[in-house]
Amino acid sequence: MYFHIAEVGTAKATGLMYLLVRFWRSKADHDAGKRPRLTNDFLMQLRPTGRRIVTRADGWLKLLDGTFVNPEAEATREIPGDQFERETYTVDVRAQIVGNIRRYWQEAKAAQLSGDHTGDATKPLYRAGQLVAQRPTPAIARDLSDPHRILERADVDGLRDAKVEAAG
Fold first, then answer.
1. In the listed set 30, 64, 88, which residue is the last one of a domain according to the structure?
2. Do both 22 and 6 map to the same domain?
3. Residue 78 sits in the same domain as residue 102
4. Is residue 128 within 8 Å of 112, Cβ to Cβ?
5. Residue 95: closest CA among 53, 141, 156, 35
6. What is the extent of the structural domain holding 17?
7. d(CA 81, CA 63)
């Protein structure tokens, strides 16, 4: 599979990340100028950071008093969740985006989809060679407002106009 991220932005109405992606069976098909096998647009709810319980290298969980407890111990299950120390960590947003795209491709391939899967009823979508009726959906208004500061990240900005070759 070979895909090209043709557009990266923000869905204005929701603040979700918007991507327009075109898929080819192979880089050779793309390089030969063949039409994309499939086009899809994605709305992704991504955040640049997450929260988790602080752990040691051996996986033990840190309590607010600074002690560590074995997560496998029966007594640990009785400790209220608000008694664990938490930390903010940086999420690998690029990996999430590429993973979402790859999962979609696997599902689309299994469903034998081809054509345009953006919800634009004026463009054909096929399943196993048969035309699929698409309900008209309004075009997604988009911009670069970036309310969650995803687009400004270097790893995400590097996806603009990216072409990715992947197994599958």
1. 88
2. yes
3. no
4. yes
5. 156
6. 2-46+97-165
7. 10
